[in-house]
Design brief:
5-stranded antiparallel β-sheet, 7-stranded mixed beta barrel, 288 residues, globular, single chain
């Protein structure tokens, strides 16, 4: 699954925006929790920039909100938690049909549009946002593993933003080798990056899936409140350990509009002065 170019570059060094990298840009020994919840697809479209991204539609016409939290334990930039809030999507001039984007991902540009991406450390913001255009910002995060549950909480400015709890699915751990595409907006561009990962997954689907998603009072969550998020998950997954490679190749396109763009997008000024600190903020303190 990992592109030949990434394998060929193994062991080579790079320094981008002041951050030293030993290629490939990889991680290992990193547990992951995931859950998907159905949402109103038309309202989800309103959160997406430009005209080429469309919510992936489930049978019945609903969209899919994806929550993925990774406890990165071994990386080039130290340890940190990444709390991804995203909407499953396709890319193209027209809305894709149901089912097919899951089977023919490249043809339909299947991936996820990342709405919010809090992380633990400053250096992760500097790299992820400055280089790959991901909407990273530093926040109070945790990742807890219990005998029957894995959970993560995201606080910002002393307020609860989001909490996710996943009941660990029973059954056999399934080997997974896959890739995932992220679409993000930054600098007035739609940016596409790809990650390749492998690990062992415990997954539950439909009625067997059990997870709880809490939206806090922080205003950053206001757009998500409009999505009619289902209380029961479509799926829930737990990966006790994973390894992954973030491709150093990425793509970008101008975000265009029929009318002149008057709203100034976030630019490089938001990352230019960031340092390379690997220090975490205090863990979340706000209860449910």
């Amino acid at each position: 699954m990992i592109p030949a170019r990434q394998r060929r570059l193994a062991g080579r060094h790079a320094r981008v925006d002041g951050i030293p990298f030993l290629l490939p840009v990889d991680s290992s020994d990193s547990p992951v929790l995931m859950a998907g919840f159905s949402i109103d697809a038309d309202r989800a479209r309103a959160l997406m920039p430009g005209e080429e991204l469309h919510p992936l539609r489930l049978p019945g016409g609903r969209g899919l909100l994806l929550i993925t939290v990774i406890d990165y334990r071994v990386t080039d930039i130290g340890t940190y938690i990444e709390f991804s809030i995203a909407i499953a999507c396709t890319r193209g001039l027209r809305r894709a049909p149901m089912v097919l984007p899951g089977l023919f991902r490249r043809a339909f540009g299947t991936g996820q549009y990342v709405v919010d991406l809090p992380v633990s450390t400053e250096v992760s913001v500097k790299g992820g946002k400055g280089i790959w255009g991901m909407p990273k910002h530093q926040a109070n995060l945790d990742f807890t593993i219990a005998e029957d549950e894995v959970a993560s909480q995201y606080d910002l400015d002393g307020q609860l933003a989001m909490r996710i709890e996943v009941d660990r699915p029973a059954g056999v751990r399934l080997p997974v080798r896959a890739s995932a595409v992220n679409y993000c907006q930054f600098r007035g561009l739609l940016m596409k990056s790809t990650i390749y990962f492998r690990g062992g997954m415990h997954v539950a689907l439909g009625r067997r899936a059990s997870a709880r998603l809490y939206l806090g009072s922080h205003p950053r969550m206001d757009p998500l409140r409009e999505l009619d998020i289902a209380s029961d998950p479509v799926f829930a997954a737990w990966l006790p350990t994973t390894s992954g490679v973030l491709d150093d190749h990425f793509e970008g396109w101008f975000l265009t509009s029929p009318e002149p763009v008057t709203q100034v997008p976030e630019g490089l000024e938001t990352v230019a002065e960031l340092g390379r600190s690997e220090d975490w903020l205090e863990p979340p303190k706000v209860g449910r």
